[in-house]
Amino acid sequence: MEKTVSSILPSPLTFSRTNFPERSHNCFLKSRSPFSLPFYKSKLGSFATHLHRNPKLKPERRFKFFAMAAAVASSYTKEELPPSLDATAEPPSLFDGTTRLYISYVCPFAQRTWIARNYKGLQDKIKLVPIDLQNRPAWYKEKVYSVNKVPSLEHNNEVKGESLDLLKYIDEHFEGPSLLPDDPEKKKLAEELLAFTDSFNGALYRDLPAKGGVSEEVDAAFNKIEEHLSKFDDGPFFLGQFSLVDIAYAPFIERFQLLFADIKNYDITKGRPKLALWIEELNKIDAYSHTRINPQELIATTKKRFGIN
Q1: What pLDDT is recorded for position 267?
Q2: DSSP secondary structure string, 233-261?
Q3: Strand arrangement, sheet containing 127-130
Q4: Where are the beta strands (DSSP E) in the chain?
Q5: What is the DSSP string of 120-155?
Q6: Are 10 and 302 in contact (CB under 8 A)?
Q7: Can you tell me the distance from the alpha carbon of 46 to that of 41, in angstroms, rounded to the nearest whole number?
Q8: pTM attached to this predicted model
Q9: pLDDT beneath 70: ranges in the chain
Q10: Angstrom distance (rounded) from CA 74 to CA 31
């Protein structure tokens, strides 16, 4: 079970770049390609076919193809984000055929579904409806989602919730790049890693306000992440190519990188090169980077919540 929204810490996270909030769009293609973005978009199918038909392709070549595909698939024009709706806001025209994703800009669970929507290029198909968690409108619980949590998805006159379930639902019911490979071995690892997310997040959140350095449990949790990032050599992500597993972990690992560095003086990437590379490549994906907020706001709010001076 996910935590209630009232207990969720505010949003993302870590930044390897210091010039926040400016970002380099389509950085992989800009720095390494003379061709246009439409050209690469037209070749996405060819990338996948080439990789499928050439299983013995050298790891560095496969890595390059996956990085290129990830950069292209996640490329889009940055949208103007709507303001959060509070208790004074009127509800939208509910169940009128519009697909709506109810999120909070500061909720890591909701951020998962926001990333998936962006990565699949569904900005015009799924409307964002941000909710102010500190002053949420009564109609959200009464008329939209009685559980009163985010995220939730209004689609085909039904409302569904739970972020991991919604990741799979969005992938299966909407067009865009697939978020799960066909390889049975990778699918098996995906389920294992998704099942581990709650234990991982719980262990790290418990350790943040504890006195002293990091616990052995935290070290073990990050070592397990490093181990799983070493399973496949066809890309820098958990399943080689970018997938819903990366989306599930991204909001939390990036938060923990920032928070543990500031509160515990602990570098989660030290001695973990696969994790360091994963974060580096993740930050190149616009569909993800456009969901982050100022890291200093996260640090200040987290310290206040935990009573850390």
Answers
A1: 97
A2: SSSSBTBBB--HHHHHHHHHHHHHHHHHH
A3: 127-130, 100-103, 152-155, 158-161
A4: 100-103, 127-130, 152-155, 158-161
A5: TT-TTTSEEEEB-GGG--HHIIIII-TT--S-EEEE
A6: yes
A7: 10
A8: 0.78
A9: 1-77
A10: 16
